[in-house]
Amino acid sequence: MQFKQSIATQLSTITGHPETQLIEMIERPKNKDYGQFSIAVYKLMKNGMRKKRKLDETKSVNLEENLIAGEGKERKAADELCKELAEKFQSSPTISSTTPIGPYLNFHVQRPVFIQHVLNEVFGQKNLYGTFKSHGQGRTVVIDFSSPNIAKPFHSGHLKSTILGNFVKRIHDALGYKTVAINYLGDWGKQYGLLAVGFNKYGSHDELDQDSIKHLYDVYVKISQEAKHNPVIDQEANNYIKRMEDGDESVLSLWRKFRDLSIKEYKSMYKRLNIEFTSYSGESETQPLIPQVERLLTTKNLLSTQDDGICTIDLSEYNLGTPQLKRIDETSVYLLRDIVAAIQRKQLYNFDRMFYIVGMSQQNHFQRLFKILELTQSGEGEDGGKWAEKLEHVGFGMIRGVSTRHGTAVFLKDILDTAKQRMLDIMMGNKEKYQDIINSGPSRQVQKADGSQFIDNSSFDDDQTALSDENSQIDLIGLYGKEAADRIADIVGISAIVIHDFTRDRYKDYTFDWKKTVDAHGHNGVYLQYAHARLSSIEEKAGVKLNPRADLETLQESEAFDLAYQISLYPEIVLQSYKDFQPYVIVNYLFNLSQSISHALRTLRVKGMDPEVAEPRLLLFWCARVTLGNGLNLLGLTPLEKM
């Protein structure tokens, strides 16, 4: 941003620090009343002086000497230096004044110039505002997330993995990486053996075709209960898996049917969540390479075979125990399959980083996995062992209390349908708005969750400023009647679930609360969607066309500047959230942005105002809507124009 550059250029002249270092040190004050930018003078002191610069005619300051002066004296020196720098810093076309507060030097911008710069930037970049496409250019990341088991219900842990993994993918997309999204299905192993045995006893192909996931779950529950009292069932399951690993086509054909039907149903759910996977892989795909990896482990003297035939690997030296890799009947366990899968992915995608979006309960598993992969790569030349260091477990806490009318077995479809129905009930409570949606559909313009936009070009003042729609096939366009209401309720319900989860640190456990999640007056996803829809309504009823060349000098109100300032923070917020994949950073920002929007709307009326007043205000609110929409997109949500 030109404001940071302007500050750095002048400070470099005063202190001798390189401009590039200074730009990295410039931050936003925690208290916006202090200014719009600040720099901690003690950071300058710690980094030392490249050369002395005279701060006045009689005194020069050597920052390294001030640092050596002692802790108490250092703070005093920093405060004094801060005052001295403030006296020497000159106002400029971008910076109006400086204020020293303790060891922080704060900078106040020229407000009209700042507003102009921010709105020009947003209008120029539109749905790309807040992206950094050059950051990850030429690099590939693999994200393994969601990964349900075909024999079990889609539980809350998978829900968390699904929405967090989607966020991790989207933020890498925003930073220009090539992303590979993998849904690594639990489609092999002992649990599947139980399911297959159960289906042979209790299964129905008709019910399987009607609702595959629910029917498979019902079968799995029955056979699991029976297995508790009948050890023969357990042995039959082991025998079934052995036949699968031996390539018995008579059992593999049924497995393929279960897998294909499950994926088909999962895809319909993922579509509702705006999620697309590059690959639906699974533990089953590791089978052909298991012998090869076993030979690798043996060559590295890592694999041990016990007297009873069980294969293990000794990681006690690293406080990771002695995990098992193969059972007594020579069938594989999922740790071995994960080792194979990681090697396969490196060969297939040659990734620069790979992320596993899985709950913290599996932390020990991934510590073992990464250590084994590191050991298998030791001694392989200069780069040996290094790609194992590119693997990262992105963990998260537990969600408690997710339940639906169907009871304790929580399916993704039930969760989404429950949220949708609750929002539909709220919508129908406002008969006027509900009827408007029934009659006229969701919107005149929509931003898709992938960031692309459809804009009604008639709202622009000429053809050159009109946005082109790269993909006009937007699923909300052309919807009317109950179908439109259902779709809006679904989007708002999903937004409520996602934002409820994303309002906290991803590592923390929490209890799911339906009331807080869908409260129409709460601080939640409903609120954010309402803020976006309200701005869309302002545009639609403005009475003037959007003019990117509007005279912004009329935006003198403090609310206008505060909103422009909030908008300007978004790119930095994206980078901050990327550092530790914390979506709550984005969510908290969007709440603050929405509050600034609400405050501005109370003062900055658009409809009925003279064009010279209405046009700059409309441009400001349009940029706020685009920024809010971009943030919702980044979280995997579809911004709504009506609700």
TrEMBL record:
Supply one GO molecular-function term: arginine-tRNA ligase activity
Q: What EC class is this?
A: ligase
Q: Quote the NCBIfam families the UniProt record gives.
A: argS (TIGR00456)
Protein name as annotated: arginine--tRNA ligase
Q: What is the lineage of its organism?
A: Eukaryota, Fungi, Fungi incertae sedis, Mucoromycota, Glomeromycotina
Assigned GO CC terms: mitochondrion
E.C. number: 6.1.1.19
Can you tell me which family this protein belongs to? Belongs to the class-I aminoacyl-tRNA synthetase family.
Reactions mediated catalytically: tRNA(Arg) + L-arginine + ATP = L-arginyl-tRNA(Arg) + AMP + diphosphate
Keywords, ordered alphabetically? Aminoacyl-tRNA synthetase, ATP-binding, Ligase, Nucleotide-binding, Protein biosynthesis
Q: Where is the Arginyl tRNA synthetase N-terminal domain?
A: 1-109
All residue ranges annotated as the DALR anticodon binding domain in the record: 528-643
Q: Which PANTHER family match?
A: ARGININE--TRNA LIGASE, MITOCHONDRIAL-RELATED, ARGINYL-TRNA SYNTHETASE
> Gene3D superfamilies attached here?
Arginyl tRNA synthetase N-terminal domain (3.30.1360.70), HUPs (3.40.50.620), Isoleucyl-tRNA Synthetase, Domain 1 (1.10.730.10)
